[in-house]
Structure formats: C-alpha cells, structure tokens
Amino acid sequence: MPKMKSHTGTGKRVKVTGSGKLVKQQAGLRHNFEGKPSTRTRRLSGTVLVAKADAKRVKKLLGR
C-alpha cells in the first residue's frame, strides 16, 4: 500500500498544539485595511482554535 500523505497546504495553515488542539490564523487580515475598522483589525490578529465542526476533517488532512 502507498503511504498516507498529509495535505501540505493544510499543514502550512494549521498548527497542532501540545494537547492536540488545532490552532489557525483568522481570515480577513491581508488587505483593504482602510475600509476596516481598527477594532476589527485588532480582533482578527492572533490565533484561534479551529471550529469543533471542522476539527475532525482538518486532523484527517494532517494525517493524525
């Protein structure tokens, strides 16, 4: 049987913590800052946990 390969694109976007939780950067923080309030920009900075509904699918993509 061939080896299971992890999805490299997902691996670049999601990090697994020591306890096994999935952490990602929030979307919407790349451009058009003039049209966004600075409160929204601050809220989007930093990392967040992957939604529980998506966690199983993302772990499968990572080969875990």
UniProtKB/TrEMBL annotation:
Composition skew (Basic residues), residue ranges: 1-15
InterPro entries according to UniProt: Ribosomal_bL35, Ribosomal_bL35-like, Ribosomal_bL35_sf
The keyword Ribosomal protein belongs to this UniProt entry's keyword annotation: yes
Keywords of this entry: Ribonucleoprotein, Ribosomal protein
Ribosomal protein found in the keyword field: yes
Chain residue ranges for the region called Disordered: 1-45
CC per GO annotation: cytosolic large ribosomal subunit
Single GO molecular function: structural constituent of ribosome
One Pfam family, short name: Ribosomal_L35p
GO BP terms: translation
Entry's family note: Belongs to the bacterial ribosomal protein bL35 family.
Protein name: Large ribosomal subunit protein bL35
Organism field: Phytohabitans suffuscus
Lineage: Bacteria, Bacillati, Actinomycetota, Actinomycetes, Micromonosporales
Gene: rpmI
